[in-house]
């Protein structure tokens, strides 16, 4: 049963909708993700006057970010009504090559025809807790101004590591149990540095989460997560409680999904 973006929809036992779009290669996956971001930004801006979007770090999304700086997206997205946040950030200066914000600025922010409605990078400091508190304050202010007492992003774009982490929510991290705060300080990942990450209380409020995952190095984690294996990995828990999770993956990342998995789609 095709879903609204040409992919194939799989209803999980809990009734949560997970839409999966398998693209032939990473370039097509990046394009599909850029299309979704553009469509969400345009529809949210039309319906509510603005779009709240959180983008991820890492390497995979950089190709998609560079697409956003080119036609048709650079002109069709109402940038002046888009508020951009980050799902996580490494606590390094914006000029450091590991900075997610610095990468986004280099890849597309500097090429936009007009500044976004709001740029909300994680405030960088040497004190992770202080940065997390400042980021949470910015998040709460943003959503309070929109008369929302929950962090309801129109779209959160996430990647996934080969270990099943997402944002900077790493397997075994105490932050996985955070139920109240919207941002937390963590250390870990690659690079293994101090970071600030959005927490599950934010991710589950999203209207839509889009996972963009490509490459054969992610195939085992994709199979684990999408077939609901134990132990539950951080990416498995990033499921909107009433929205939709869309997985945009390429054939390499889908390579280990069992044939029956796709057969079930046909019912
Ligand atoms: C980060 C990212 C992280 C990333 C995954 C996948 O800041 O490290 O937010 O969660 O999405 O590690 O990274 P790649 O796309 O580079 O494989």
Please write the string of helix (H) and strand (E) elements: EEHEHHEEHEHEEEHEHHEHH
CATH class: Alpha Beta
Number of structurally distinct domains:
1
CATH architecture: 3-Layer(aba) Sandwich
Distance N to C terminus: 8 Å
CATH topology: Rossmann fold
Question: What spatial form do the alpha-carbon principal axes imply?
Answer: globular
User: What portion of residues is helical?
Assistant: 25-40%
Bound molecules: 6-phosphogluconic acid
Number of helices: 10
Percent of sequence in beta strands: 15-25%
- Assembly form of the protein: single chain
The low-confidence parts are: 1-15
Radius of gyration: 17 Å
- Content-based structural category: alpha/beta
Strand order of the largest sheet: 1-2-11-10-7-3-4-6
* Total E-strand runs: 11
Q: Calculate the mean pLDDT score and round it.
A: 92
What does this structure look like?
With 267 residues, the protein is an alpha/beta fold. It has one domain: Rossmann fold. It contains ten helices and eleven strands. The strands form two sheets. An eight-stranded mixed β-sheet has the order 1-2-11-10-7-3-4-6, with helices on both faces. Strands 5-9-8 form a three-stranded antiparallel β-sheet. A hairpin with a 5-residue loop joins β1 (8-11) and β2 (17-23). The longest helix is centred in the first third of the chain and has 23 residues, at 26-48. The protein starts with 7 loop residues before the first strand and ends with a helix. The structure holds 6-phosphogluconic acid. 6-phosphogluconic acid (6PG) binds next to loops. The site of 6-phosphogluconic acid has 16 residues, from loops.
């Amino acid at each position: 049963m095709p879903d609204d973006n040409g992919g194939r929809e799989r209803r999980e036992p809990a009734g949560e909708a997970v839409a999966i779009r398998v693209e032939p290669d990473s370039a097509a996956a990046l394009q599909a993700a850029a299309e979704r971001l553009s469509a969400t930004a345009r529809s949210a801006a039309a319906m509510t006057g603005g779009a709240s979007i959180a983008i991820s770090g890492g390497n995979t999304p950089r190709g998609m970010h560079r697409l956003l700086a080119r036609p048709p997206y650079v002109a069709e997205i109402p940038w002046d009504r888009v508020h951009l946040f980050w799902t996580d950030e490494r606590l390094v200066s914006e000029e450091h090559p590991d900075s997610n914000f610095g990468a986004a600025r280099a890849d597309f922010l500097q090429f936009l025809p007009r500044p976004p409605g709001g740029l909300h990078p994680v405030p960088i400091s040497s004190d992770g807790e202080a940065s997390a508190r400042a980021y949470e304050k910015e998040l709460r202010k943003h959503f309070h101004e929109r008369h929302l007492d929950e962090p309801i992003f129109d779209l959160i774009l996430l990647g996934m590591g080969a270990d099943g982490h997402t944002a900077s929510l790493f397997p075994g991290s105490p932050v996985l149990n955070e139920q109240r705060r919207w941002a937390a300080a963590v250390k870990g990942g690659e690079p293994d540095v101090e970071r600030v990450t959005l927490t599950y209380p934010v991710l589950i409020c999203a209207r839509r989460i889009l996972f963009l995952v490509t490459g054969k190095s992610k195939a085992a984690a994709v199979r684990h997560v999408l077939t609901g294996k134990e132990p539950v990995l951080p990416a498995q828990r990033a499921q909107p409680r009433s929205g939709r999770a869309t997985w945009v993956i390429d054939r390499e990342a889908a390579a280990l999904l069992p044939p029956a998995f796709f057969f079930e789609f046909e019912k």
